[in-house]
Amino acid sequence: MRKIISFVHISLDGFVAGPKGEMDWIKLDEEIFDHVGKRISKGDTALYGRVTYEMMENYWPTAADKPRATKHDKEHSKWYAKAHKVVMSKTMKGADLTNTKVISDKLTDRIMEIKQSGQGGGEDILVFGSPTATHSLMQQNLIDGYWLFVNPIILGQGIPLFKSIQDKTKLKLLTTHQFNCGVTELNYIVDRP
What we know:
Layout: E1 4-11, E2 15-17, H1 30-40, E3 45-49, H2 50-63, H3 71-82, E4 84-88, E5 100-103, H4 107-117, E6 125-128, H5 131-139, E7 145-151, E8 159-160, E9 171-178, E10 184-190
Parallel strand pairs: 1-6, 1-7, 3-4, 3-6, 4-5
Antiparallel strand pairs: 2-8, 7-10, 9-10
Helix pairs in contact: 1-3, 2-3
């Protein structure tokens, strides 16, 4: 069965965005893009909340066509076009969306079906950002791992990654990676009995 991995940039004090959703503090560079690109190329399914999905849809389908498109823009745009996208939303309709499935009810059942079906055959299902969707998945104990990019900043306030956690969740550290820009990757798997 495939695993759901939350891929997210966080501040040292655990926030994924500032109080108004600001993400201008996130450090990104070619070293990080190359590292992430290698990892996500093994997968073929991305899970989003509606807001993050709409942001992605507004950028990635045409990112490679822009005059100043970077290597990362071209590579990720190609991956995004092929990827199976799953959107958690109670308001979005999905009949005419290419390569996209919308989950609006029975979250646990629908996610388990996707994990077991192996739709697409790729490795893990990656949750990109999407704090609201991530919180819903956490509450249902559906996240199997956390791929955290800890940025060297303390925000003091904002949208926390870990919110409304009711039970202890033991994690096992799989890998770490230090980037030259000061970001540290921590790759954890949920340690279930």
